[in-house]
Design goal:
This protein has a 7-stranded mixed sheet with strand order 1-2-3-4-5-7-6. Helix content is 31%, strand content 36%. The two termini are 26 Å apart. It has a domain at 5-117: 3-Layer(aba) Sandwich (Aminopeptidase), CATH 3.40.630.30. The mean pLDDT is 87. The protein is an alpha+beta fold.
């Protein structure tokens, strides 16, 4: 898709953000969804500097400004020059290469503007689509974290993936 860019969250993104965050509950990553009020407070505080907040959330936007997904850079460690990255592409536009393209934009920002040396991701071992996106983006598997996340009554493994600045 041509004309993709990363932009800050805007107040008009709030309803979409609520829907996307609810998906994290369905996936077992959170016990309860964030409230709309909580997400509005997050939006109100999102002007803070990356190194102050140790995180930033970007909207992957189409040329017309339409939100296609979210890319989070979080758990930033200034001393170690690393941060974790997470990808969420709207289900209606998946399988079009947007995850890979968005990761490329995030890497340009992280390695160029923020001065990070390393990005890493934790991906459920059975999430073949996400693993493929990260592999296609040059991330290498650094290991498996066994029974790392509790989802419902079960514990799930994650792959630890890493990309170093070239």
């Amino acid at each position: 898709m041509d004309g993709l860019n990363l932009r800050a969250l805007e107040p008009e993104d709030l309803d979409q953000l609520v829907r996307w965050e609810a998906d994290h509950v369905d996936a077992g990553l959170r016990i309860a969804p964030y409230s709309k009020a909580m997400l509005k407070r997050y939006l109100d505080e999102s002007h803070r500097d990356f190194w102050e907040a140790e995180q930033v959330r970007f909207v992957l936007a189409a040329a017309d400004g339409r939100a296609l997904g979210l890319f989070d850079v979080f758990n930033a460690q200034p001393v170690h020059q690393r941060a974790e990255v997470a990808v969420l592409v709207d289900p209606s536009v998946r399988r079009q290469g947007l995850g890979r393209q968005g990761l490329g934009l995030v890497e340009q920002w992280a390695f160029g503007r923020a001065g990070l040396r390393s990005l890493y991701a934790e991906v459920f071992s059975d999430n073949a689509a996400a693993l493929q996106v990260f592999a296609a983006s040059g991330y290498e598997t650094s290991g498996t974290l066994k029974a790392w996340y509790r989802v419902g009554r079960e514990f799930r493994d994650v792959q630890l993936l890493q990309r170093m600045r070239s």
